[in-house]
Design brief:
single chain, Aminopeptidase, globular, alpha+beta, 6 helices, about 35% strand
Length: about 180
Amino acid sequence: MKEQPMLTTARLILRPYVPSDAKELQRLIGDRAVADTNVWVSHPYTDDLAEEFIGKRQFEFEENKSVMLAITDRVLGFFIGGIGLTISIEHQKAEIGYWLGVPFWHNGYCTEAVRAVLKYGFGTLGLYLIYATHMTRNPRSGNVMQKIGMKHEGQMRQVWKRWDKFEDGERYSILRSEFDNLHC
């Protein structure tokens, strides 16, 4: 069995999900404010969805399809959100996605976590490109992408349907060489 990574930053530990995360995962990601701008999050987000999500993590990691990590407070250990890479090994690229529970917004945690996952993706996984998307009406997610050096590639018109409304999206990306130059 391949061991999933554990990444440490100044304030966070990004670690594999464990079954005991299910209740807090369901509570935090199930908040409508979190689900509102995360098209892949079902709402309501039930306990069985959390358990199913956690149950798939090791398999998808071993198949080189994804690495999904729980974001936890480094000192107290409590669960605050999630981050991950959906990987295309053939093309040496991945899409990064992240979310935080509402009580943890606006503290710089996403920027800190994204930086650590990009370092892992480019270093350990040997990726060439990492990209991210966000709903246009969620500019704070785009701010995270800009802070870590991602370049805006463009707008995607009405690419997602959320709450019976079509949503525009923004796409950002960063190459390994760009990341290395910024974060040496």
